[in-house]
Amino acid sequence: MNGATVPTERKPVNKWLVTVSITFGTLMGAIDASIVNVAVPHLSGALGVTVEQITWVTTAFVISTVMVMPLTGFLARLFGQKRVYLASLVLFIIGSALCGFARTLPLLVFFRILQGLGAGALQPTEQAILRQTFPPQEQGMAMALFGMAVVLGPAFGPTLGGYIVDNYSWPWIFFINVPIGVVSVLMVTRFVHEPEDVRLALQNAAVEQRKNLDWAGIALLVIGLGTMQYVLEEGNRNDWFASGEIQIITLMAVVSLAALVIRELSARVPAVDLTLFKDIVFASGTVIGSVMFAMLMAITFLLPLFMQTLLGFTATQSGIALMPRSLAMLVVMPIVGRLYNKVSPRATVAFGIVLFAYTAWMMGHYTLATGQRDIIHVLIIQGVAFSCLFIPLTTMALSTIPRHRLPDATGLNSLLRQTGGSVGLAIFATLLGRYATHARDSMLGNVTLGRPEVLQRVSAMARSMMATGMDAASAQSAAARVIDLQLRRQAMVLSFEKLFYLSGILFLCVLPLVFLLRAPKSAEKIEVHVEM
Questions:
Q1: What is the CA radius of gyration of the chain?
Q2: Which of the 8 DSSP states describes residue 347?
Q3: What 3-state DSSP class applies to 479?
Q4: Which of 115, 121, 315, 466 has its CA 20 to 30 A from that of 26?
Q5: Taking the model in full, what pTM does it have?
Q6: CA distance 482 to 379
Q7: pLDDT tens column, 189-234
Q8: Is 369 helix (H, G, I), strand (E, B) or coil?
Q9: Which CATH superfamily is domain 276-447+500-519 in?
């Protein structure tokens, strides 16, 4: 059969129906990565376990998701893109339903692993399908639609989870996926079809792959990514390399990942196509994208903590304060997608990097007197910055990749994005406490009773407490504790300030990579088959 031949009996399908069909699953998978966080106290009480043990509910999901992402191309060649997406979606739905019925921690963790295995292939497969469905001049808009699902999912997850937990019960954060997932399965079955040239290319590749199944590569991938993600998720809670367990697992991760690279570069038919990183445009776009997600996850972690622990915001208030960034992205992403072919993608990415660095500098000026309006103002600008980054980066990174290799490329792109977010979160969570401790130690030398102004303030507090009936010794002790609390709060402010500045500096460091985001004139220009 000729690669340009399209079955005449197939009824034309609008590209927007294809988009809606496959976006449901990706959005649910992205939301479920963060929706559980707000339900931790409820889960802890319902299952009779500690908060530390409950963290495995999130860790198990993230680890299983990461292990599947780079295997998307391998699975697409064996079974076809549409079948992989449908199978993943069905597994995600079944896993969600079982999570809702689980009443013990081991069962819930096991079902979250199933759910994560299903979610892992959804993002890369949708990305590949959208790239193959939209014509070249609309690739920016296609990635804008994908970006809204990937970026907004984690942003809306905690808000949706909080509402469900407050008004219903924790199992519904999982049950809500079932009806939406069923609708998505029906729509994908009806409206999504693989382009004929891609289907034939994958079938031809599958013949050779079945003869040379890379079991060693798959085993190394599972061990390497699983152990690496475990270290990133659990390292901070175990004081990193002060823990013998973390040391051993880190060694396992390093050895297995190094062996994976050697194996995949020498295998006849590798399970993971690492040669894609020889493409400078793909490599630079993917690296910048991973740094972007590292900063996005770090800021999303830091800001609610800053608002709740230092400014006295409730969880609901901090969630509402974060919403304008998501809403700004929702508005700006389609605009950036439409401008993709009219404005230089490199200029848009460079503008986004500089704009994010500016917002990081503004956040570095937050104090204990900062109000909600000040935070919202900065977050709206930051939403514009991330919108200018995500669309061109994702589109340019895949611009030189042949259509039949897109499943491999999108899997690796999604993997590095997810890993970048985990690395950013782990590093910034660790530095937050260390910077605060260092700042407090530095200030302690200046806060002694030998200084007249300190003695005067402590004495004034003690007299005020004695006026309420407290004895002199207790009042003096209480005043000292108040001073210490104020010192700790100021140390935390300085720690947040350093980390906000650091996020901007790290982003500026990848600015030179923007100059590599240029698709060569010889890049493959294929008229994409679109059913309209």
A1: 25
A2: H
A3: helix
A4: 315
A5: 0.71
A6: 33
A7: 887 777 776 777 777 776 777 777 778 878 888 888 888 878 877 7
A8: coil
A9: MFS general substrate transporter like domains (1.20.1250.20)
